Amino acid sequence: MTEVFELTVNGSRVRVETYPDTPLLHVLRAELDLKGARFGCGMGQCGACFVLLDGQVVPSCDTPMWSAAGRTVVTVEGLAPGDALHRVQRALIEEQAVQCGYCVSGILVSAAALLDRDPAPGEQAVIEALDRNLCRCGVQRRVVRAVLRAGSQEAAE
Amino acid sequence: MTTEREAVWTAGLPRDLAANPILSRWVSVDAGGVISVRVGKVELGQGILTALAQIAADELGVGLDQVLMPPAHTLHGPDEGLTAGSMSIAQAGPAVRAACAQVRARFVAEAARRWGVDAERVTVLAGRIRHGERVTSYGALAGVVDLDVPADPQGPLTHGGPPVLVGTSSPRLDLPGKVAGLPRFIHDLRLPGQLFGRVLRPPSPGARLTDLDAARLADLPVELVRDGSFLGVIGADEAEVTRALETLRAAATWEEHDTLPDEDDLRGFLRSGPHETTEAPATERPPATDRTAERPPATERTAERPPATDLDHPPAAGQPASAGRPLRASYSRPFLAHASIAPSCGVARWNDDGTLSVWSHSQGIHGLRAAIALALDIDAERIDVEHVQSAGCYGHNAADDAAFDAVLLARRVPGRPVHVQWSRRDELAWSPFGPAMSADVQAVVDESGAVRSWRYEVWSQGHTSRPGYLGVPGLLAGAYLERPWRYPAPADPPVAAGAGTLRNAVPIYDFPHRRVTGHRLLETPIRSSAIRSLGAFMNVFAIESFMDELALSAGIDPLRYRLAHLRDARGRKVLQTAAEAAGWGAPVAEGTGLGLGFARYKDKGAYCAVVAEVEAEHEIRVRRLTIAVDVGLVVNPDGVRNQIEGGATQAASWTLKERVRFDRRRITSDDWESYPILRFGESPEISVELVEAPGLPPVGAGEAAQGPTAAAIANAVTAAIGVRVRDLPLTPEAVLAAIESSDL
């Protein structure tokens, strides 16, 4: 049976009616029209659907609605207010650290979470924070450079 | 206008413009001055639309912000065939340049006519068309300049001015939207009245549906589609459709058969036949371009007759070679998955007027259209296909199959678009694979170690089963319909298109005698098709590994050994540039090693040399790849770097980790744990040196690094720990096995 769930997504309170085991990713994409979190595997293995759930990086494809209820979700669209870009989004553009771009939403969520707890991380910390994100085009080293750049900009500000 | 006249008069135009001569197919200008440049090539994440926009903007004399690059469309844009084989810049670049130059000339002519001045005295700069004090614009003249005209074969192919954007690292036009998480992919497409569909693939390739308990779906809010062993569900709510798919799975009964080969004996499988055997032409190597280059002593000494040595019973490589004695070794690669990060997706709508609209991330929308028409026996003119972006595909993945799934499901609900998204498991188990390959190399060397005679023989499945190959649709679902379309064994592209099994099988080196033979398997139960660089990955891995084996056996430095066999000046420069940048020859730490790999992609494309620095302890760790590349004219330097870096990283992943797994019935590597790819923590540092050759035509960069990277890593492993692994992937188990066998 379906149930009604309330949660906060990118700062707004939302109510959705769905099955308790419906993945959060489906609700974000189909019900809330937030297409930033991408479907990659549906098994929590690739990171394309990563979001912040109460500040923790989780695969939204593998997060059932019953466990997301009442909690706070931030997607790639909510990393910065309005149409502004988070500094790590800007850094990715500056480093041209993208090829197809399908995996970057999840990478950005991982990177933003890292920069939240460690504003100027070292290279090893960046690599560890991104190791759950798969990228097939091969821009890993550019992404690492971009996140380090975002960190050093933070340190300079 | 007769087509005959067109054929004669378009002879001087670039190929793709001659084939699509009407200018409005390429360029349209709206009253606001926005110039839409339509191309037949598609964005796969390689940045092609940005590079072509640079070319277009330079020819038109406008800024990039005035150019729009709409997606490829079978009705509205030119047909440029496939976006594949690193050919997009070489094919679309000159066509876009010429089309835009002629559009510019027509606008300039109109302005000159109005002002009563000579067109040669009208300039175009930053979108302003000007003569003295008088200024107009593309937008202002858009209503009067007719672009529904054929390109003029006598007209300009370029306006000839100095490049402004070409040669610069223009940032990718599509990145801001993608980085912001905006809906940019086919998965995000939502059309009015759209429904969602899911297809239930059989449990194994040889399975046939024997029974379906359809009553189990009776109460669900979905429509069931069945055609033979093809099963799917359609509904308005994607979550309900996904749930219904599991009910359908439980309701279906299949008869299964063991149809797959023995994964542990791919060598035997590939060599068992029947085969189509092809000899590489004896002289397709271009002549040395630099006559002043040092001539290799080997060639001078041995340019007489074939050696009399018995090539059938040579000693194995790694043993000391004596003059005139052959060495030999065998190499292999397993089946490889494209493994796109996005599962394939397609959308289709059967329109009320009897036409069919399809949205697809296919690499060849015209080929897809023809294949759908063939499969369903309808007129291709009644089908339109629009490209919508997806994740990188790296070759022929399931994009076309997903589109055909959508077509089959949508037939049940005329007027409604149906959006079909594959699962991760289906993506990894049911997309076509890059074929497994096995090769033998033998060489006879003289007393100095120089090659006198070279023999290469390679066995493979074919490298293409793209839509329409061998006269069949080649779409996955077709094989499971009530009236099935069987798919024959995969074919190979013709030599003129770079071949498949034999791609890069002919070494670039100047050997006095060589013979190169390819054997393509004519019967196979595993569907394979094009994956980035086709046979070149394996052939370059084998050739360049063996070059190192020969060099080491002769006690000669591998760089020097290659140079001694290579007259091609561009090749020499690329090799030397990479070696110098990597510090070749300097001492390295214990347990680490440097290895070299080199090739010219497709014999006429980009030159690429890779030096790998590998650390071999508990596992093989590629620390750094130092790469030099010559792609002729560079349109976008950072774009070339990004393509080379990405190709090399992916090749490192193939080389170290990847192997499609299967038992005799099913593909078993169907998630990211059973099909692991390189992670952030394993990705090497990469530096790319662009060896400039600006006077030469541009060639693609996307596939040049694949083979050289594999060989460089394998050669570096040998340099680090003294053992050689000849069967990919170079997993810790494979290295351990090589160490153990070398102790015997």
Structural summary, described in words:
The complex is a heterodimer of chains A (157) and B (744). Chain A is an alpha+beta fold. Chain A has 6 helices and 5 strands. Chain A has 2 domains: 76 residues, Ubiquitin-like (UB roll) (Roll); 70 residues, Orthogonal Bundle (DNA polymerase, domain 1), CATH 1.10.150.120. In chain A, strands 2-1-5-3-4 form a 5-stranded mixed sheet, sandwiched between helices. In chain A, a hairpin with a 2-residue loop joins β1 and β2. Chain A is globular, with a radius of gyration of 15 Å. Chain B has 744 residues and is an alpha+beta fold. Chain B is 28% helix and 19% strand. Chain B has 19 helices and 24 strands. In chain B, the strands form 6 sheets. A 7-stranded mixed sheet of chain B has the order 9-10-7-17-14-15-16, sandwiched between helices. In chain B, strands 12-20-19-18-13 form a 5-stranded mixed sheet. In chain B, strands 21-22-23-24 form a 4-stranded mixed sheet. The radius of gyration of chain B is 27 Å and the shape is globular. At the A-B interface, α1, α3, α4, α5 and α6 of A face α7, α8 and α17 of B.
Observed structural traits:
heterodimer; A: alpha+beta; Ubiquitin-like (UB roll); DNA polymerase, domain 1; 2 domains; five-stranded mixed beta sheet; B: 744 residues; alpha+beta; Aldehyde Oxidoreductase, domain 4; disordered N terminus
Describe the secondary structure blueprint for this structure.
The complex is a heterodimer of chains A (157) and B (744).
Chain A: E1 3-9, E2 12-18, H1 24-31, E3 50-53, E4 56-59, H2 65-68, E5 72-74, H3 87-94, H4 104-117, H5 123-130, H6 140-156
Parallel strand pairs in A: 1-5
Antiparallel strand pairs in A: 1-2, 3-4, 3-5
Helix pairs in contact in A: 3-6, 4-5, 5-6
Chain B: H1 3-9, H2 15-19, H3 23-26, E1 27-29, E2 35-37, H4 48-60, E3 67-68, H5 88-115, E4 123-125, E5 128-131, E6 134-137, H6 138-141, H7 175-179, E7 195-200, E8 208-212, E9 223-227, E10 230-235, H8 238-251, E11 252-255, H9 266-271, E12 275-279, H10 297-302, E13 326-333, E14 345-350, E15 356-360, H11 365-376, E16 383-387, H12 399-410, E17 418-421, H13 424-430, E18 437-445, E19 451-460, E20 513-521, H14 536-554, H15 558-564, H16 569-582, E21 592-600, E22 607-616, E23 620-630, H17 637-657, E24 685-690, H18 706-721, H19 732-743
Parallel strand pairs in B: 2-3, 7-17, 15-16, 19-20, 23-24
Antiparallel strand pairs in B: 1-2, 4-5, 5-6, 7-10, 8-11, 9-10, 12-20, 13-18, 14-15, 14-17, 18-19, 21-22, 22-23
